Amino acid sequence: MTIFKNLRTVACCLAAAVLSLALAPAAQASTPAVAAGSAHSVLLKTDGSVWAWGRNGLGQVGDGTGLVRSAPVLIGNGVIAIAAGGDSSFALRADGSLWAWGDNQLGQLGDGTNQNRTSPVRIGGGYQSVSTNGKTTFATRRDGSQWAWGQNDVGQLGQPGDTSKTNQPSPVAAGRFYAAASSGVCHGAGVTPQGSLWTWGCSSRFVGGTAGHFILGQRGNGHVNANGLNDPNPPDPAPALLAEGYRTVSTGVHYNLALKADGSLWIFGSGDFRDVVAFMSLVPLQVGEGYAVAAQGSHFSAGLKTDGSLWTWGLNDVGQLADGGVGNTTCNFGEVFAFDIVACRPQPAQVGSGYAAMAVGSKHGLALGRDGSVWSWGGNDEGQLGNGTLTPQKVAVALSIQAGSPVLGPRLMRVVPVADANTLAAAPFFDANYYMLRNPDVAKASGGDATAARAHWLQSGSAELRESSVLFDAQWYLQNNADVAAALGHDGVGAALHYRDWGITEARDASPAFSLGLYQSANPDLVAAFGENRRLYQQHYLAFGVSECRRASRYFDARYYLRTHADVAAAVGNSCAGALIHWLNNGRAEGRVAVQDAAPLYPR
Known about the structure:
The protein contains 14 helices and 31 strands. A hairpin with a 3-residue loop joins strand 13 (180-183) and strand 14.
């Protein structure tokens, strides 16, 4: 049994600390979400239940029947995230297991077969996020590794040297992690946690037919196809860096919508409209600002801004723009040499407000109100709106089903460059001394230099979710706040900034060693002095509370720990700060009981 040496010396490091301990999350509510396939819809409620409706011929709804469902049906429970695309659906459970159902002809479910599934099948364990366009699927495991499966005939999966279909998870771009990744018909795109936008696959492709044409610019690198039917530059599956400063990217059939960290929305690639928002842009072109999320349906797009307003543009033949048709005009739609005249709106326009999340299918849309209401609009030929009818809706209508509780509004986190290391050092979530204490390899490499330690956390430690303070643990924060994880993915810097900007004031717990709510309730004298200024509670705990043995966590009680483990008490001289350090470094791994009447807790 190992006792951490020199505990009295290192206990002082707790006076400005931040941490990253992956506690198995206690039972908690899921963050409501909506997802849309081509003509089916999926809802995740606060209680973790998953509901689906719409097209079901290939098992898209997942109820085992294959029958069209025009109203929501319960599919399962214990879920924390969902995804849908094409005719496939996915659900991620709190235990890390990934489940899938629906169309599997291209191996897009990842179960090792090409058999369609009418009810959920388990794909594997250890996952933390998933996204799909119905033909290719990307997923991230809790260790940060990226995996993909499905169609890959022109390099959609970003796997150099492999253009075959794959019906089971295979690693993507070894050594690179995408916080957001997706693919179109023949290309893919991903954004790293540091904001680097990468693209792969085709940059031009001939589309057949009597009036064949070239789709151009999907990779956003300025590449233009040569005149003629044969592209002299075949698709390259190897990811290449396109630009910096991005947060998310959504790929459509032949074009992309990418969000920068400042909320500006950019488009590149080409669509089927001759005169709708950047018909063809070979490089990223800005089309708006203030967005938190954006996505494409079949020839239409929608975006949700950080103020909760919903914006749409593009094709509007069945009401998919949710504007009642009042903004309709005529657009040239189709191939380069032959156009149809269709109803559309060329530019983005606001069509609603008060929303917290949204998703779009081929010709329909879904949204969650901040009050937990569920809304749908657009095409409804297969019941995809979930209102019990097959009638299209040209404006958003509320469904009878509710998400369960108020939903966190859309928020876009910004990317923080390494140059901001000094600014980050002043924030409550990072302590260079503690970081080096918990990461001996960094301490050795940096020679004990605090600036070098901060730079290491920003460059790689944050992406690895390394522990950085007793007040904040990025991995634990993401696991216990599913809405933040859904928005940020595997992003240590973004999680830290979310905690600093919102989490503290919202009283979100961010570490197994410190709970704002518990510290307040257990110390009425501090409540009288500090009121609702939650940052003061943090400062008090670091400066006085930990050494005064004030309890600040439901997972750890310093007095009980010292009383129960005489060897620790002897080694640390009954120091509560020393006891906390011992528990963080050794006690949990050794299975030591740290609170009365509780079994050992294993954060990792």
